[in-house]
């Protein structure tokens, strides 16, 4: 008979005490292997005691599998077991197995279990590589030894090491793609991300399956690892294991992602202390990125070495490249292990060949290992060698392969050793809630984006950028500007100004012409300017365009800055770019180009042109001749300059019959610019109208990208909004009728404004709060006031701002809503008549700051 189904408290308490003792010892001494093996032994002991106390049948075997089978347990990891049996009847399984599993849960073991026969194990392993991997690391805990031996014998006989290797290779590729193929995200997964613990486990699974060894020591003994690589690998593995264990303990649950919320506590538990220039969390993450980078390098070397052992027939020389290098199955290989020590110039030549030799897709294990061991040769003398400078510039000037070459140079630490200031930003975090990559990865992403403009296969992404770069002489200057635009981040001071010094030094040392040097240095210094003008200033104001044109001076500079700006914004975060920002930048480019070409930005000629274009479109809608005049006569020049002719035509088509409408008119359509919804509101003006509309949109979860607010000469508000819904699963067409009817109803009732909802900050924003900032100042003519607000984004924020303005009777003329990841930087043009009262101005600013507080 088996024991009673409820857990006896002594077993549960004993396991709890053992775990607590091990954790306490780890907190004191920090020895990670003692903790992982100790936790495993503690659970082993409880398992065996439970097996004996529960009285399981003799023809069953209790087997540890997966990480638990490997003999390692993290504080909150699942305990994976296999209950092996010889074709037991269903009734017997129900009678014995289910109560036993429940019993294990009761004594505090979080079980992941499977119940199979040997045949079922073999069948499942065939069907699922994950099951096969889990069974590869099996260990008998209790029960029938003969049955377990039979399972192991049949599993080993059935395992195909070559097929297993190929499957694991594909699995690695899929897993890395899931994490954007980079260890450098700001919240990496220390187990699954590239350079994480899983990369190391995969190697040992492959070598175990192939009979090449079960540990790093065994791999070293078989010459798959050098002594130096073995030492580096162990050091970084220990760090990652310790990190993961501490994460579990801090979160008090299974936690493998280095979330912002835990980074500071984690850093402090490892002894990192904040300095005047760096947070403790930044120092920790830098250490993590260096470890992940080393693991990535060593992992690549090992994978290639294991592949060469498993597939010796495919590892021969394919062709001779020159007297120093050959190609082996698409990989560049050095012909002599001591090449880089004797001829350091060959280091950069490797990457130039990688770009130039058709069909090459990487570097061989021998080459990677030699680069890894040649780091001492990459010194000041090597950096200042004229031949190396020529080679590096040539790498940047190649027609193709630049992005891949630079990424490979970064992975192998060559790029940071050649450009010392680039080395300083490797693993440098950016706490601006805007960038989602470290500085070095962002820089390489911007280089990639610029290069993609010139690649035929990507011309559909940004046709205008591709058209511009195709006509741009010496496009490699853009690559250099991209490489230096953020290189001075984290040093203190203005990174644009410091970066200009670095860029000029580089250009001088590499013999770049004065003209190209001046362009590169200027681009680094001004790389944020175009984005700021397009997103924060009124580009319908001829004076804004004229000032910007004076700054850029000529068409080459304008084109270069435009291309760099698009590439830069695209390289910050997948969430930051949208079609609306693209249109703002393109409009600014085209308007500035006209001024640089000698055109004088004359509002009257623009007004005439826009009206004529709008009239042409209205004729297509069969609007009667001169029908638009009643509406247009009530609108000022600013309305026509701020709206595209297509928008003017669309709005006129819906409003020409309703110029003096007693009830609100609301029309919506899918945005003509990318994803989103465009909404037109026409109603008799009221002070709190903008706040009322913002409140409705925010309740609906619609984010306002842009708002244009106009007041007709006879007291009607003609407002236009561009909206998006990040969580919308269906088409925007599906919500058009709903928005139109609900907004008309809301504006008809004119109920008092509701209290703003002070929504919770998103998790990342709570970790890195932005100090709310309000800047209110008159424009040059004193007719309007410009209000800039900066804060962490959250639900209800825009409504809170609009409500403060409404309460003080301040009218909004235009609103430019700029969301940068989890941060907002919004700009409003306000009617200046009331704000000339300084006391009111102070009251508005004070209340706005209160409203921006989360």
From TrEMBL:
Highest taxon in the source lineage: Bacteria
Region (Uridylyltransferase): 1-320
SUPFAM superfamilies: ACT-like, HD-domain/PDEase-like, Nucleotidyltransferase, Nucleotidyltransferase substrate binding subunit/domain
Any one GO biological process: regulation of nitrogen utilization
Domain HD: 439-555
Family designation: Belongs to the GlnD family.
Function text: Modifies, by uridylylation and deuridylylation, the PII regulatory proteins (GlnB and homologs), in response to the nitrogen status of the cell that GlnD senses through the glutamine level. Under low glutamine levels, catalyzes the conversion of the PII proteins and UTP to PII-UMP and PPi, while under higher glutamine levels, GlnD hydrolyzes PII-UMP to PII and UMP (deuridylylation). Thus, controls uridylylation state and activity of the PII proteins, and plays an important role in the regulation of nitrogen metabolism.
Protein name: Bifunctional uridylyltransferase/uridylyl-removing enzyme
Species for this entry: Pandoraea faecigallinarum
UniProt lineage: Bacteria, Pseudomonadati, Pseudomonadota, Betaproteobacteria, Burkholderiales
């Amino acid at each position: 008979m088996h024991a009673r189904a409820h857990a006896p408290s002594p077993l549960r308490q004993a396991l709890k005490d053992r775990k607590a003792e091990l954790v306490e010892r780890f907190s004191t001494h920090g020895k990670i292997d003692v903790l992982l093996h100790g936790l495993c032994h503690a659970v082993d002991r409880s398992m065996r005691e439970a097996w004996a106390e529960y009285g399981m049948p003799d023809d069953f075997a209790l087997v540890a599998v997966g990480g638990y089978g490997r003999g390692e347990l993290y504080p909150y990891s699942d305990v994976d077991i296999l209950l092996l049996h010889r074709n037991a009847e269903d009734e017997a399984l129900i009678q014995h197995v289910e109560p036993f599993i429940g019993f294990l849960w009761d004594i505090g073991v979080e079980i992941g279990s499977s119940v199979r026969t040997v045949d079922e194990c073999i069948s499942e392993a065939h069907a699922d590589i994950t099951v096969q991997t889990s069974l590869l690391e099996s260990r008998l805990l209790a029960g029938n030894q003969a049955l377990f031996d039979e399972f192991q014998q049949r599993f080993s006989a059935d395992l195909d090491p070559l097929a297993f290797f190929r499957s694991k290779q594909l699995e690695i590729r899929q897993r890395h793609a899931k994490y954007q193929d980079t260890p450098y995200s700001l919240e990496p997964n220390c187990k699954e991300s590239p350079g994480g613990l899983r990369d190391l486990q995969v190697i040992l699974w492959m070598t175990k399956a192939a009979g090449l060894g079960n540990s790093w020591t065994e791999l070293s003994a078989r010459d798959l690892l050098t002594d130096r690589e073995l030492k580096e690998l162990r050091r970084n593995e220990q760090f990652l294991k310790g990190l993961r264990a501490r994460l579990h303990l801090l979160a008090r649950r299974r936690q493998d992602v280095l979330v912002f919320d835990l980074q500071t506590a984690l850093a402090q538990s490892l002894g990192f202390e904040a300095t005047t220039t760096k947070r403790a969390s930044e120092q920790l993450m830098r250490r993590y990125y260096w470890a992940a980078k080393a693991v990535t390098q060593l992992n690549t070397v090992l994978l290639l070495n294991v592949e060469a052992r498993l597939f010796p027939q495919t590892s021969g020389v394919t062709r001779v490249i020159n007297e120093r290098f050959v190609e082996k199955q698409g990989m560049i290989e050095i012909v002599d292990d001591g090449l880089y020590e004797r001829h350091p110039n060959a280091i950069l030549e490797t990457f130039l060949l990688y770009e130039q030799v058709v069909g090459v897709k990487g570097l061989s294990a021998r080459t990677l290992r030699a680069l890894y061991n040649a780091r001492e040769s990459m010194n000041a003398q090597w950096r200042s060698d004229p031949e190396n400078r020529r080679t590096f510039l040539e790498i940047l000037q190649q027609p193709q392969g630049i992005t891949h070459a630079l990424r490979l140079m970064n992975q192998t630490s060559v790029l940071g050793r050649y450009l010392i200031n680039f080395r300083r930003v490797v693993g440098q975090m950016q706490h601006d809630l805007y960038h989602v990559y470290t500085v070095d990865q962002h820089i390489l992403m911007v280089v990639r984006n610029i290069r993609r403009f010139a690649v035929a296969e990507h011309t559909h992404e940004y046709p205008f950028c591709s058209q511009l770069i195709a006509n741009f002489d010496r496009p490699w200057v853009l690559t250099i500007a991209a490489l230096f635009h953020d290189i001075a981040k984290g040093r203190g001071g203005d990174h644009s100004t410091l970066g200009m010094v670095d860029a000029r030094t580089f250009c001088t040392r590499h013999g770049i012409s004065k003209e190209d040097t001046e362009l590169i240095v200027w681009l680094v210094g001004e790389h944020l300017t175009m984005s700021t003008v397009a997103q924060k200033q009124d580009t319908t104001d001829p004076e804004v365009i004229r000032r910007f044109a004076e700054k850029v001076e000529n068409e080459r500079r304008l084109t270069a800055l435009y291309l760099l700006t698009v590439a830069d914004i695209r390289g910050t975060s997948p969430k930051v770019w949208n079609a609306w920002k693209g249109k703002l930048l393109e409009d600014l480019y085209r308007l500035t180009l006209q001024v640089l070409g000698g055109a004088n930005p004359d509002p009257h000629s623009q007004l005439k042109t826009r009206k004529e274009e709008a009239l042409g479109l209205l004729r297509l809608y069969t609007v009667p001749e001169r029908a638009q005049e009643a509406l247009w006569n009530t609108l000022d020049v600013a309305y026509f300059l701020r709206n595209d002719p297509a928008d003017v035509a669309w709005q006129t088509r819906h409003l020409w019959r309703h110029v003096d409408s007693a009830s609100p008119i609301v029309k919506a359509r899918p945005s003509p610019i990318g994803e989103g919804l465009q909404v037109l509101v026409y109603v008799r003006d009221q002070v709190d109208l903008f706040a009322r509309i913002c409140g409705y949109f925010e309740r609906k979860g619609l984010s306002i990208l842009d708002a244009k607010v106009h007041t007709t000469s006879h007291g009607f508000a003609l407002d236009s909004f561009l909206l998006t819904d990040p969580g919308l699963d269906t088409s925007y067409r599906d919500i058009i009728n709903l928005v139109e009817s609900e907004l008309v109803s809301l504006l008809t009732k004119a109920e008092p404004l509701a209290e703003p909802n002070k929504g919770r900050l998103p998790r990342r924003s709570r970790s890195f709060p932005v100090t709310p900032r309000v800047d209110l100042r008159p424009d040059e003519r004193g007719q309007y006031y410009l209000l800039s607000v900066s804060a962490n984004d959250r639900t209800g924020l825009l409504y809170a701002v609009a409500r403060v303005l409404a309460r003080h009777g301040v009218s909004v003329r235009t609103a430019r809503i700029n969301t940068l990841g989890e941060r907002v930087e919004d700009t409003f043009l306000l009617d200046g008549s009331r704000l000339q009262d300084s006391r009111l101005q102070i009251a508005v600013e004070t209340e706005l700051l209160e409203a921006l507080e989360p």
